[in-house]
Request: fold
Amino acid sequence: MTEKRISAGILGTGWAVPDKVVTNQDLTRLVDTNDAWIVERTGIRERRVAEDMPVSELAYRAAKMALDDAGTAPEELDLIIVATLTPDRVIPSTACVLQDRLGATRAAAFDLSAACSGFAYASTVAGQFISNGMYRKVLVIGAETLSKVVDWTDRNTCILFGDGAGAAVYGPVEDGYGLLSFDLGSDGSGADVLDIPSSGSLNPVTAQTLAQRLNFIHMDGKAVFRFAVDIMGKTVESSLAKIGMEKESIDWLVPHQANIRIIKSAAKRLKLPLEKAIINIEHYGNMSAASIPVALAEAAHAHRFKKGDIIALAGFGAGLTWASCIVKWAKED
Ligand code: ACO
Reply:
């Protein structure tokens, strides 16, 4: 006997970025680089930097906006999931900090670690709780302050990343709308391709690891690029195949914003004109778990989606991980 499942979808979205803008030109004062190289190789022109602000502040602002947009009171939330690789602290979770700040008195709260795939992973988790009827309202946030874990003397990485937060309130929607399918994946054999070597129990932070700058992001850019170019389109294809949907049905792609060349290659594979991909990498760079929800929220608030549109969220990142969700937009504009 199959149980009746409740359709789970997005009720509201929000985003927040810090005010401080760092342009490519600004970076030329820190490392041997130039605007033309960064724009041509990545598509990034500027990024936001949180300075003294903790990630919970960005997450809080994005969450408030999403709750307002959804018409949901904090007390209605059953669960808060924060996808991040830059929490305020290792413990407590940033989700717990938010639970208190928002006054979400009934909510359970936890952080989810899947790097840049985090928002799509967390959206899928939220969808399961709602679909099986155990929870009604789940707040999902992707939030990062990557500027705090980037080595500003390493031109291979410091040009790529930025800070921000995006949020979505998930809840029951009209039958047949909301989250239709997903694909989650991991390949831990690629763990060393993109990591913060001294950040936990494997290699605890010591004076020596700090001197070796092992507390910052280390990345084999070419290896990540090869992986990303293949997986971004593939994960969307897998999500579509599970529900017998054709690529041609996709109205919008909301991709992880790591490199414009990766986004272009995914759009091509999915036979989607680039205008149908939501792209904001030029202004924000790679905000890891925040990239997809910020792009989603900006597009939603710009009224780019209409009820019934098929939206593919697709991300990849450290782990290695990848994730995609197919969403039938349930919100009336
Ligand atoms: N400015 C100027 N020149 C540079 C810079 C820079 N910032 N960085 C590298 N170069 C030089 C290199 O030294 C090299 O010079 P050489 O040919 O004389 O040796 C040349 O430019 C080409 O360098 P590549 O590393 O081959 O450049 P590539 O085209 O591969 O682009 C990049 C590098 C942008 C990092 C690309 O590989 C990429 O986007 N990779 C994916 C990264 C990614 O998505 N990471 C995030 C994953 S999400 C997460 O979980 C956080």
User: Anything to note?
Assistant: Residues 179-328 form a domain with the Peroxisomal Thiolase; Chain A, domain 1 fold (CATH 3.40.47.10). The pocket of acetyl coenzyme *A is lined by residues 33, 37, 41-42, 115-116, 155-156, 159, 194, 219, 221-222, 224-225, 228, 258-259, 286, 288, 317-318 (CB under 6 Å). The first helix runs from residue 24 to 27. DSSP finds eleven helices and 13 strands in the chain.
